[in-house]
Write a structure and sequence with these properties.
Elements (H helix, E strand, L loop, with lengths): L6 E9 L2 E9 L12 H15 L5 E6 L3 E3 L12 H19 L4 E6 L2 E3 L1 H7 L3 E5 L5 E2 L13 H9 L1 H13 L7 H6 L5 E3 L4 H14 L14 H15 L6 H11 L5 H15 L3 H16 L17 E4 L3 H14 L3 E4 L3 H20 L5 H9 L1 E4 L10 E4 L5 H14 L5 E4 L6 H4 L9 E6 L8 E6 L5 H13 L3 E6 L6 H17 L4 H9 L7 H8 L1 H14 L8 H7 L14 H21 L6 H11 L10 H6 L2 H5 L23
Helix pairs in contact: 1-2, 2-10, 4-5, 4-9, 5-8, 5-9, 8-9, 9-10, 12-13, 13-14, 18-19, 18-21, 18-23, 19-23, 21-22
Length: 673
């Protein structure tokens, strides 16, 4: 659904210094549909500017509707855009925002809520900025989307805060999982001039404007010292090479623009931004990002495939296990559901240690200002644990997070069924085992569902919701409802080894370990994967997951598809604490390995779609974006494989055309296994 058009509503305020204009950005919706700048919004701004330029005002205050300032351009207008239209869109923003900057009276942006992209840029065209202390999202995330800030951001940010902070804000923060500033950081880093409490924010912002007028502060033209910009950008390019490996041009182009801001007149900088938009916005990375944005922000939130059944009410949660994953889950349930949470493990020492860990994490949130002391005490009082199974009596949902052994998980569910009510939902956090097999022998297998969370739980938003042939609609609806309340995104998948994320990463790993088995170095194997622009090298991911766990997953996948997931002597050795094992010295070039990785991913995506593990290629991409940190400008993976012709070469058609039961006309065997 397209974003509703934003209007610029102008109101006259008669004050002690004379008439002041209040310009409010408002699309008529609540905070869940934030203000964006599409073509209609820019026309509304133009109308407002005619009034502002045609009367004797003493000042201007620009603000947003409740809880939202503005989140930038309407991304819904970007799909399939032509270069010239992209250029004209950039020029329209430059001209209109530039007219705000050129108004002959003092202008203040009152940033009352989320300010992203164009929202930040319109604020930067004002002389001063106030910001509400409640604001948590202040950023220019365009590089995250394969773009650059195109309405003056690359030119005004360095002039305001200097080269190092500009590079961090415009380039590096978006590539660090789209990191954003909160209000206090925005003030400390020089973007805003006053930090105000939200209760009287608009009145205090108006007082700030009136004070500036009375003091004769006048217009402001920031001119930070940019003598170090060349060296700062040189070092940043070197870091980029090690981070995205040239896979996306946007961050490099942004650095060029920041560097140019030191010497260009502002109008020349505007033209350079327009040139960059004309090149980048129609390009494959930005178009893939638009696709990815729609998946994550719109499609996935609709709960595609989830039945309309009424979910059960969850008032008490159990977690089987007290290890790292179990602890993270307990903390998440506490913070988001605010219901009693009980843990169970083999020894009381393990349980007590987990409860203390949760308390320490709550205390850390208090120290960082993310949680009030009273709320932390309340939440801490809700978590308990024991070694007896009876602790789960009265639970509405129990999630097991024990070791990845089928027999162990079956025993857990058998014990749970003795003590919980028949309507209690039993969920497994297995990463690769059959949920159907886990529930075999239960009296009520219909209330078993997979809820596969990803580590670290606090960071990765995906939950693979695994439906078995027996899982009933109420169970699935309950799992999805809980997932939503946890502020996670659930993607419906069928019960198959490895589901989606681990299956695809396992196939990628098969190519990597085969390379090591045949004499390639770890560095060469890493580079072959990192060329896609992924945030983490395979060797680092292996250490994070743990070689033993990775090898266990490989065995699970090998049991199902031995030809595509061969066991690896190197992985077996690493799992036992050894070194890579070369079975034959026949290394391939990094180019050959990179091609093999892409072709293996295309082939496995084909199998996932033909088997009906997910309904569409879009589900694969959503899983990789949210569960494996694949960058938006790759579009997950199937968009990239389709754009680059890999799908056609391997499968015979675009992966986007495949679905359950579909067969490719031509199946080419991918190299690299």
């Amino acid at each position: 659904m397209a974003s509703p058009p934003t209007s610029f509503k102008l109101r006259r305020l008669d004050t002690r210094v004379g008439p002041v204009a209040l310009l409010t950005m408002d699309n008529g919706e609540d905070w869940r549909k934030p203000n964006t700048f599409g073509e209609q919004a820019l026309r509304s701004l133009e109308d407002a500017l005619l009034e502002l330029e045609g009367a004797d005002w003493r000042g201007l205050l620009v603000t947003g509707k409740p809880f939202v300032f503005a989140v930038g351009a309407d991304i819904g207008e970007f799909g399939g855009i032509a270069p010239e239209r992209a250029r004209l869109g950039g020029r329209a923003g430059h001209e209109l925002f530039g007219r705000i900057r050129d108004l002959p009276f003092v202008t203040v942006a009152a940033v009352n809520g989320a300010a992203l992209g164009g929202g930040v840029e319109i604020a930067l065209h004002c002389d001063y900025r106030t910001i509400a202390s409640s604001v948590r999202h202040f950023a220019c995330p365009e590089v995250f989307l394969g773009l650059i800030p195109g309405w003056g951001g690359t030119q005004l940010v360095p002039r305001l805060v200097g080269a190092e902070e500009a590079v961090r804000f415009v380039v590096e923060n978006p590539l660090r999982q789209n990191r954003m500033l909160d209000a206090r950081q925005a003030v400390e880093n020089g973007y805003a001039d006053a930090l105000l409490e939200p209760v009287e924010f608009l009145d205090e912002s108006l007082a700030f404007l009136l004070g500036a007028v009375e003091e004769g502060a006048g217009k402001r033209r920031p001119g930070a010292d940019l003598s170090d910009v060349g060296e700062v950008c040189r070092k940043a390019r070197a870091r980029l090479d090690g981070q995205v490996h040239g896979a996306t041009p946007a961050p490099y182009r942004a650095l060029d623009l920041i560097e140019g801001a030191a010497t260009w007149p502002l109008e020349e900088g505007y033209r350079a931004e327009e040139d960059a938009l004309a090149e980048l916005l129609p390009g494959p990375q930005a178009q893939a990002s638009i696709y990815a944005f729609d998946l994550v922000e719109r499609r996935a939130k609709r709960g595609v495939g989830i039945p309309e059944a009424e979910p059960r009410r969850v008032q008490k949660v159990g977690v089987v296990g007290a290890g790292l994953m179990a602890r993270q889950l307990a903390l998440l349930f506490l913070r988001r559901l605010e219901v009693p949470v009980v843990l169970r493990d083999l020894t009381q020492e393990q349980v007590d240690d987990a409860v203390v860990w949760v308390a320490d994490e709550l205390a850390d949130l208090v120290r960082r200002g993310r949680l009030g002391e009273g709320k932390a005490r309340f939440l801490g009082s809700l978590v308990t644990g024991d070694t007896e199974w009876d602790v789960f009596a009265g639970c509405d949902l129990v999630v097991e997070a024990v070791f990845e052994e089928l027999a162990v998980k079956q025993e857990v569910f058998a014990q749970l069924e003795r003590v919980v009510a028949p309507e209690c939902v039993l969920a497994t956090n297995t990463s690769s085992l059959s949920v159907t097999a886990t529930s075999a022998g239960l009296a009520h297998p219909e209330r078993v569902v997979g809820m596969h969370f990803f580590n670290p739980v606090a960071v990765l938003p995906l939950v693979e919701l695994v439906r078995t042939p027996q899982t009933d609609e109420v169970t699935l609806a309950t799992a999805r409802d809980v997932t939503r309340k946890l502020r996670k995104t659930g993607v419906l998948v069928s019960d198959a080894p490895g589901f989606v994320v681990n299956r695809l990463l396992g196939r990628q790993s098969s190519v990597v370990t085969d390379a090591l088995d045949h004499g390639n170095s770890v560095e060469e194997a890493d580079e072959a994967v990192l060329r896609m622009g992924l945030p983490m090298a395979p060797s680092v991911l292996l250490q994070l997951v743990g070689p033993k766990v990775a090898n266990h997953v490989r065995h699970t996948l090998n049991a199902a598809w031995p030809d595509r997931f061969p066991l690896s002597p190197t992985l077996e050795s690493l799992a036992e604490g050894g070194e890579p094992v070369v079975v034959e010295h026949a290394p391939r070039s990094v180019d050959e390995l990179h091609r093999a990785v892409l072709e293996a991913l295309a082939d496995e995506a084909r199998h996932i779609l033909e088997e009906g593990v997910v309904a569409e290629a879009a589900d694969i991409d959503t899983c990789l974006l949210l569960g494996a940190g694949f960058p938006f400008w790759l579009g997950g993976i199937t968009k990239h494989l389709d754009q680059t012709g890999v799908s056609e070469r391997v499968v015979g058609r675009a992966l986007a055309e495949l679905g359950p039961g579909a067969r490719a006309d031509v199946i080419a065997a991918p190299s690299g296994g």
